[in-house]
Amino acid sequence: MGRLIRGQTDNPSGKRGRPDRRARGMAILVFTATFASFSSARATGDPARGAKEFGVCAACHSLNPELNKTGPSLATVWGRKAGGLPSFGRYSPALKGSGAVWNEASLDGWLINPAGYIPNNNMTFPGIPDAKVRTDIIAFLKAVGETGRGGPPVDIPAAYTATPLNLRELKPDQEVTAIRSCRDSYFVATADGRIRPFWDESLRFETDASPLGPFPGKPAILPSGMLGDRAAVIFAQPSEISSFIRQKC
Ligand code: HEC
């Protein structure tokens, strides 16, 4: 906690501390040039390498400002207050109350060991022991943030900003018209006239309340998993689920 409070008072905007850190980095370079390479948390990262390394984050974080996944969009994380993205409704009280502001130092502390830096947070990620990798990812997030504020353009891989499939524009084989349940089976009928059987443990029911989620009363079915036997039926809202499924053998 001490680290956070210090970061907060010295460095409320994430800007004031930077020249200071650079000056200290210079001193290390002058006096112990050999150690400078080990002090990589203070070295400049490579945003292009960071763009590739961000792949480990991308399963949970988009760089599309409109898209939150398991975690909040990181498109505008640079300089943001921790827990400060209004469109993300799943922050832990711990993160929101931490007082952290995301800059080089706080991101480095977070990415070394998220659970140690802000105990009881919701990010199930073990951390990145390699300082070089952390520095690169941080340089990339900084470049992304500064591009958004008129800085030089940065190459953001399209996968990081891609929007998910629009479930309001379904093909007939994706539009569910009826679901019947009998013992351990579901039978899912789609708008192309097919009825597919599923073992009940292979079919997941989900909701998507985002603007890309399905229209009410028109759930979508999408394959999930690798073997072709699993699928997810996605409804507009939870109240639809049990009323849509008819129990009949
Ligand atoms: C398994 C999913 C998952 C992975 C992988 C993951 N995160 Fe997160 N991240 C989350 C969640 C969930 C939160 C919200 C935590 C909370 O509220 O306590 C979060 C929060 C954050 C925050 C705080 C954002 C804010 O608005 O305050 C940052 C910064 C962050 N993650 C960076 C990263 C980076 C960088 C990586 C990759 C090195 C990464 N995360 C990997 C799920 C993940």
Describe what this molecule looks like in 3D.
- It is a single chain.
- Residues 1-41 have low confidence and may be disordered.
- Helix 4 packs across helix 9 (131-148) and helix 7 (104-112) crosses helix 9 (131-148).
- The protein has 249 residues and is an alpha/beta fold.
- A hairpin with a 7-residue loop joins strand 5 and strand 6 (231-235).
- It is built from ten helices and seven strands.
- It has helices spanning 2-10, 17-31, 33-36, 47-53, 55-58, 93-96, 104-112, 114-117, 131-148, 239-244, and strands at residues 176-182, 185-190, 195-199, 203-207, 220-223, 231-235, 245-247.
- 26% of the residues are buried.
- The protein has two domains: 2-160, Orthogonal Bundle (Cytochrome Bc1 Complex, Chain D, domain 2), CATH 1.10.760; 172-247, no CATH class.
- The protein has a four-stranded mixed β-sheet. Strands 4-6-5 form a three-stranded mixed β-sheet, with no helix packed on it.
- The chain starts with a helix and ends with a strand.
- Bound molecules: heme C.
- Residues 56-57, 59-61, 70-72, 74, 77, 80, 82-85, 91-92, 94-95, 102, 110-111, 121-125, 128, 137 line the site of heme C (HEC).
- Heme C binds at residues 56-57, 59-61, 70-72, 74, 77, 80, 82-85, 91-92, 94-95, 102, 110-111, 121-125, 128, 137.
